[in-house]
């Protein structure tokens, strides 16, 4: 007879909204971890450790199944390498470097571009057409992100300047959006097994970052706090969140799942209030209403993408 934990797990993996909410919450925690990581661990080393940690955790459970599925995946090895390298390794590198050289306002605004990129990608790559309600939901959630990013003053958009960090972050968002769209074409296998394959490639492609970090003079071996941060980002944003998001895309498609990405800046702000003692402002509440309203509108449509 299945255990209570097993039954709960099966029930959760049949419900896209809780899965996607948990994924966004984990990714929001990654923003807090990134702030806490300053002077505790260097960014490139953190990227390497997170993916090595993920494959170390998953391989004992799914390694045998990966080996069994490998003959079927070998013809698509190039596609697999591109997915993992750009969606995981390069995205994280660009994100960490962008966060060091752009403002919080720009960071929030540009992250809000991902759902639009995902919808555009489903049109170009998959030939689908999001409904008007889905576009409306994406627009409303984006307005919520802009409200948080501009700290309740949308006129601040007039004074924004584009920096090198902005360009890096925009490229990072584009890469992850393409990864999200490409998930629709993943092979017919268990999501955890497929993710283990991607994590293995990400771990391999991230290892050269350590000598690169050393050669550029940026290598900072983790303090004990840095190790705790590395464990967190490996287990939650990198492992569980990716599995939950992968399953969410399977259940509702990339367009509808992509709308949930606008929760990340809002949840990050709320976690900053609770964990870092940052003040809770009126625009946080309004943004929450806008984002959840947009998601509700997008979810009450036919499955698209």
Characterization of this structure:
The protein has 305 residues and is mostly helical. The protein has one domain. It is 77% helix and 0% strand. It has 14 helices and no strands. The protein has helices spanning 4-12, 16-36, 43-73, 77-101, 104-111, 114-126, 132-149, 164-182, 191-206, 209-215, 224-252, 254-259, 263-276, 282-299. Helix 7 (132-149) packs antiparallel against helix 14 (282-299). The longest helix is centred in the first third of the chain and has 31 residues, at 43-73. The chain is globular and about 50 Å long. The two termini are 37 Å apart.
How would you briefly describe this protein structure?
The protein is mainly α and 305 residues long. The chain contains 14 helices and no strands. It has helices at 4-12, 16-36, 43-73, 77-101, 104-111, 114-126, 132-149, 164-182, 191-206, 209-215, 224-252, 254-259, 263-276, 282-299.
Order of helices and strands: HHHHHHHHHHHHHH
User: Roughly what fraction of the amino acids lie in strands?
Assistant: under 5%
Mean pLDDT: 79
Q: Mind describing the biggest β-sheet? A: none
Number of helices: 14
Distance between the termini: 37 Å
Radius of gyration: 19 Å
Which of globular, elongated, flat, extended, rod-shaped describes the shape? globular
**Class from helix and strand fractions:** mainly alpha
Tell me the number of structural domains: 1
Helix content: over 70%
Q: Which parts are unreliable, with pLDDT below 50 for 5 consecutive residues or more?
A: none
Beta strand count: 0
């Amino acid at each position: 007879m299945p255990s209570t934990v097993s039954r709960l797990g099966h029930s959760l993996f049949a419900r896209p909204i809780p899965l996607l909410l948990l994924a966004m919450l984990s990714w929001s925690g990654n923003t807090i971890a990134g702030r806490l990581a300053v002077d505790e661990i260097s960014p490139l080393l953190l990227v390497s450790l997170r993916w090595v940690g993920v494959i170390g955790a998953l391989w004992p459970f799914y390694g045998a199944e990966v080996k069994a599925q490998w003959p079927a995946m070998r013809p698509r090895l190039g596609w697999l390498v591109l997915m993992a390298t750009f969606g995981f390794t390069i995205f994280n590198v660009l994100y960490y470097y962008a966060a060091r050289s752009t403002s919080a306002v720009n960071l929030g605004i540009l992250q809000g571009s991902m759902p639009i990129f995902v919808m555009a990608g489903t049109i170009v790559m998959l030939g689908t057409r999001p409904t008007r309600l889905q576009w409306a939901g994406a627009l409303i959630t984006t307005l919520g992100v802009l409200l948080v990013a501009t700290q309740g003053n949308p006129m601040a958009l007039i004074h924004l300047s584009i920096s090198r960090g902005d360009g890096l972050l925009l490229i990072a968002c584009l890469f992850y959006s393409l990864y999200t769209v490409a998930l629709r074409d993943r092979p017919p296998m268990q999501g955890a097994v497929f993710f283990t394959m991607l994590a293995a490639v990400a771990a391999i492609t991230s290892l050269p970052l350590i000598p690169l970090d050393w050669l550029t003079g940026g290598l900072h071996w983790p303090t004990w706090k840095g190790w705790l941060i590395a464990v967190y980002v490996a287990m939650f944003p990198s492992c569980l969140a990716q599995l939950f998001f992968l399953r969410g895309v399977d259940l509702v498609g990339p367009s509808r799942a992509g709308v949930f990405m606008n929760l990340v800046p809002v949840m990050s702000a709320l976690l900053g209030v609770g964990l870092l003692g940052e003040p809770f402002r009126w625009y946080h509440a309004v943004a929450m209403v806008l984002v959840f309203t947009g998601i509700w509108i997008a979810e009450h449509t036919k499955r698209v993408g």
